[in-house]
Model the fold of this input.
Amino acid sequence: MTDHDPTEEAESSTMLSETRRTILKGIGAFGAVSVITNEFDQVSAYETNDHLAQTPPMGWNSWNQFACDISAELIKETADAMVESGMREAGYEYINIDDCWMASERDDDGNLQPHPERFPNGIEGVAEYVHDKGLKLGIYSSAGTRTCQGLPASLGYEEQDARSYAEWGVDYLKYDNCYNQGVDPRDRYAAMGKALRKTDRDIVYSICCWGKYDIYKWGADVGGNLWRTTGDIKPVWNANDSAWYEGIVDIIDLNEPLAQYAGPGHWNDPDMLEVGVEVEGYPGLSDREARAHFSMWAFMAAPLLAGNDIRDMDETTQKILTNEDVIALNQDPAGVQGYRLTVDGKQEVWKKPLANGDVAVALFNRGDSTKTFGTTAEALDLEDSAGNSSGFVVDDLWTKETRFTRGPIKDSVPSHGVTLFRVRQGTPDDAPSAVTFDVDGGSDSIERGETRSVTVSLTNDGRTAVEDIELNLDAPDGWNVSPQSAVTFDNAAPGKSIETSWEVTAPEQIDQGEYEFTLHASYTWDDGAKTASTSTVWELETLPAPPTGETYLSDHEWVDATIGWGSIGLDESVNGNVLTIGEATYEKGIGTHAESEITYWLDGTMSQFVADVGVDDEVTGKGTVRFSIVGDGETLTETDVLTNGDDPVSLSVDVSSVDKLTLVVTDGGDNINYDHADWADAQVLE
Ligand code: GLA
Done:
């Protein structure tokens, strides 16, 4: 957290926020809509640009990590890093400069000019540097009169700007949708598509209209090689419904149904990668979530445009971004966008047919606990016409293990995780039988000092027996685990399972949080001649004791808390002042800042939640927020959008039978600047 006041940021980003609010959420028209005359030719016949981007474009884009904080230096250093980190070798090619590269005005001849400080030697210099590294350069503009950051953009200047890009040596254009003046999107995007082709330079055309206008149906016809299918991505797993941006899971849900529109030369674009991106105000992704995000983007034949600072990334991030087997799925020449095969609650099986006849499978667990699930070779249409086969070889693209199965294709997948398999028919010379864990630990949370029994089974999915099986449960420090039955077994025949259980006791003194356990199985195969192993992760979340009687939540330990700016105030505002809403002051309560979620464990023992909520008076005349109360994932109540100076709103909500109570603050639809939000006198009553 930095200690600057968000009021400082507000001046510079107000216009952006206004634009985004209006366009992304369609709240209304911004400014006076004066429909400008089309100075460019009306496009009558459309033409595709499919000879480019035969596989989804791979590269990097400046926006997710750097926003407007860009420069020629950054672009050059990123090109260097692309080579040094092994990313170029792995297939990353485009270095794309997003918004803010241009000066605030065109020159006297109407030409776009680079920002004099950020790009003192123009775009050509950068292009040359990038090309010398064996890479390509991308640039950004908008099919509007201004970019989303209020800088000059290309509506009405399509041919002139396309000529500039081509002269500078640009290889890729991302073309946004801000300040579009209500002009028909087909005309706007076709005009640039046509102008780019007229340049005779191969320029990949990336249409960025946030999934609006059914773009996937006609984007290719106007020369688009890819088109955004969603609003802007942020480094969050799942964004709140009222947030202006999207999280990983939201985007997957928006992009998946469009699979039929993707193919070589024309791709759905679910936005750039958030792997390794760290920006203030957003929680970021765990390593497992980042792996799942990358896996699903690869699976959906999405452009793989890294969004992190690749000059300075940790090993995990680098390994995720350069996993060649996962990239091979993405770059598969058949160009099929993977799609859902089956859904069972929060567990999804996805399929992606590959050019060489193999089938890729993603087992995606969007739920909160480890689950065992999967599919079969038959359901994947991998059996031969007679319905029989010798078996199937399964490559795990993250663990790099190869296994042999007689048909079941499944895995034990931890929360927010993905298992990626590449499956083919055949008998490998040297692959152990596949075995699969199934863990049942009851609920996924535990109170301090509590003892819980965990049942674990291991199933042989192969064609031959596995022998000398040994199971192990690795617990985090301080936890007590003791087996309740045998942990070694002579053998398991194909299709058979073995089962054991452990008692797990949480320490009395331990920080609240998630604790990871690892289950291991080692076994022999090939009549005992060879050994193999497998493992899975299982997690428990420790919980504070529930409140009793009448408890002010500012006196009670939370399970989880996030805040969009600053740190949460207990019995004070986010800026450390007396909690004050509409001139009413409060001694007790919680001072927070949008976007914020604070979760308490009630264990179904409380009956009522009460609070007075509103924007704190410490921001004068600013800030818009919405308060909602969520019980076990369901919204129990929410306020209207409240703003500074409004009287406090008194909430009283029935929480009987609620285990987890979450106090949520979202921004009122603009941005989070000035959103100082108070839960005054917040109390639960037994
Ligand atoms: C829009 C786009 C983003 C980014 C910004 C730049 O929000 O959707 O991807 O290009 O504009 O201002």
